[in-house]
Design goal:
Helices cover 27% and strands 31% of the residues. By secondary structure, it is an alpha/beta fold. Helix 3 runs parallel beside helix 4. The longest helix has 12 residues.
Length: 182
């Protein structure tokens, strides 16, 4: 779904500058974000999609995350392949279904593409988390990825749980504080 500048402007109410976000993210920073804010993300982020996110949720429920610390983190809905990274649809059942549990576990920003439902937007609000969209621009993101590290579930190949170090990943806040751009 294409999001027009008019839709963004209707939520922002004013011209906004790009904000810089460094991980880990504080509760106060999340409270300052509004739908339509344009941000750059720098620091370490996690990557996962439909094959691995339900597994991470189960580890959290079992209090068995080991060295994975999700507090103040970002999860990018993507696979990590030799071809690069690009957002996958966040409204896939397994991905969208993981958003509330991962927010409860401390994830502050979920990064993907596409609309998410109102119940998910409400859960983001409950756990002071936000959802941001990123355009499908694999070449741009590749140039802004500093490093990648396999964190868990190597048997899933490119759909395993990865940690990336990034510099100025561009995105737009699409859901925050019980509001959505969609």
């Amino acid at each position: 779904m294409f999001i027009s500048q008019a839709a963004i402007d209707s939520f922002s109410g004013e011209d906004r500058l790009m904000k810089i976000l460094h991980t880990p993210i504080t509760e106060e920073y999340i409270e300052s974000l509004q739908v339509g804010d344009m941000i750059y993300i720098s620091g370490k982020i996690f990557c996962g999609r439909d094959a691995v996110l339900p597994k991470i949720c189960r580890l959290f429920e079992e209090a068995d995350l080991g060295d994975i610390d999700l507090r103040g983190s970002v999860i990018f809905h993507t696979a990590v392949s030799p071809a690069g990274v690009g957002p996958t649809s966040s409204n896939k059942v397994e991905i969208e279904g993981s958003i509330p549990k991962l927010s409860e576990a401390g994830v502050k920003l979920h990064l993907g593409k596409g609309a998410i439902n109102k119940d998910t937007v409400a859960k983001l609000n409950e756990f002071n988390s936000v959802y941001a969209i990123i355009p499908p621009v694999t070449a741009l993101l590749g140039s802004k990825t500093i490093s990648k590290r396999l964190v868990a579930f190597p048997e899933l190949g490119m759909e395993a749980f990865y940690e990336l170090e990034v510099e100025k990943y561009p995105c737009i806040i699409a859901a925050a504080h019980n509001k959505s751009i969609y």
